[in-house]
Amino acid sequence: MQQLIRGRVLDFFADPSDTDRSHRYHENGAVLIEDGRILAVGDHADLTREGLQEIDHRPHLIMPGFIDPHIHFPQLQVIASWGSQLLDWLNTYTFPAEAEFADPAHATHMAGRFLDQLTAHGTTTAVAFCSSHRTSAEALFSAAHARDMAMVAGKVMMDRNAIPAVHDTPQSSYDDSKKLIASWHGTGRQRYAITPRFAITSSPEQLEMAGALVREHPGCHLQTHLSENRDEIDYTLSLYPKARDYLDIYDHYGLLGPRTLLGHSIHLEPREIARMAETGSRAVFCPTSNLFLGSGLFDGDGLRAAGITSGIASDVGGGTSWSMLQTLNEGYKILQMRGQKLHPLAAFHWATRGNALALGMEAEIGTLAPGSAADMVVLDVHATPAMALRAERAETLSEELFILQIMGDDRAIAQTYVAGRAQKNGSKHTSG
Ligand code: GUN
Ligand code: ZN
């Protein structure tokens, strides 16, 4: 059945940092969808017709759903844990919470709640670290598949330096990853990310296995963490004394390339930046997490100038908000601390098409171009009294976007569509 989703419509076809002609905006617009896909986007008058079901979101703004390219599924109850930086935070709060995901009933229950939070915050695709237990990834993929929601996820590989309840072995991590790839990579909208947690928790033997998985499954992503925290870097280099630098460890095992997502990438040496650019590896900026854990200030312009494509992500539960709006808010402030500017058009591009580009999935998500998935978010700039008050003085689309970016959160999400299906109750249906 075809449906017309009506409102003010905005999406991007280029990066606003590169060009003045980056976006399509229809003030009186609509998106025509069928079977989870976008058929057409344009002015409402050109797309409406007798008998077509319409859902009217005016005066709200319809955009491609947000993409969160770095989040930890088993940390949904770790968010807002007090008082420590990365390594203590992992040991004190995170590993014990992840241990609970060995229980399939717990993992299944939490998977539904995880996806509910994502869509409540306007996020329609995430790249997720699961726990080290195969069951946790099974639970997340099953739940996402049932909703026809595009998820990129992987079982964490970690065989040392944590607690026994979350340790696997090089062989079991290889075998479990293989099984998950066979079951889920390319099943509906699900994709697999080979997921060595980081060099501290993987032995050389395990990184060797991760490299074998990358060679055997070149269509999968690879996600890990890189240079988030100074103590982490020192500890890492002590564990791999032959490595030239942190990145070199991953490089040595064949883990770099355009499908590789390197969470944080903050304290990088010039050689590492050059090598990331050369291999096409992606950086992922996690602003709320970097502030919360006191990790450091991401160099957005520096990496960009070096030719590196970056994503921007929540990193829940090190991150403090599920909202990509709040993620952009904190991202703006971190870049301010570096004397860099995040324009609202560039910010909304980043959370949609920019993150899709970082994943190499821009033909499918992050855009409203005909043929792409009908994954959409509907944004309400009047969501709170304070936002409405400020919006009285907004004269341009950019100003309105900036209010959403700085003041918005899940209250600004009027609706989220996943593969054409509304995730919240309460939209106005009419028949034209
Ligand atoms: N480095 C290794 N594991 C993690 C994690 O779970 N969160 C963050 N922020 N950094 C990590
Ligand atoms: Zn992370």
CATH secondary-structure class of the largest domain:
Alpha Beta
- Gyration radius, rounded: 21 Å
Tell me which ligands are bound.
guanine, zinc ion
What structural category characterises the helix and strand content?
alpha/beta
Helicity level: 25-40%
Gap from first CA to last CA: 14 Å
Q: Helix count?
A: 15
Strand count: 17
Q: Judging from the principal axes of the Cα atoms, what is the shape?
A: globular
Low-pLDDT ranges:
none
CATH-derived topology of the largest domain: TIM Barrel
Cofactor: Zn(2+)
Protein name: Guanine deaminase
Keywords: Hydrolase, Metal-binding, Zinc
EC number: 3.5.4.3
Commentary on this structure:
The strands form two sheets. Strands 5, 6, 7, 8, 9, 10, 11, 12 and 13 form a nine-stranded parallel β-sheet that branches. Strands 1, 2, 3, 4, 14, 15, 16 and 17 form an eight-stranded mixed β-sheet that branches. The chain folds into two domains: 128 residues, Urease, subunit C, domain 1; 257 residues, TIM Barrel, CATH 3.20.20. Strand 2 and strand 3 form a beta hairpin. The protein starts with a strand and ends with a strand. The protein is built from 15 helices and 17 strands. The model has no long low-confidence stretch (mean pLDDT 97). With 432 residues, it is of the alpha/beta class. The chain is 38% helix and 24% strand. Helix 12 crosses helix 15 and helix 14 runs antiparallel to helix 15. Guanine binds next to helix 2. GO terms for molecular function: guanine deaminase activity. Keywords: Hydrolase, Metal-binding, Zinc. Its cofactor is Zn(2+). Belongs to the metallo-dependent hydrolases superfamily. ATZ/TRZ family. It catalyses: guanine + H2O + H(+) = xanthine + NH4(+).
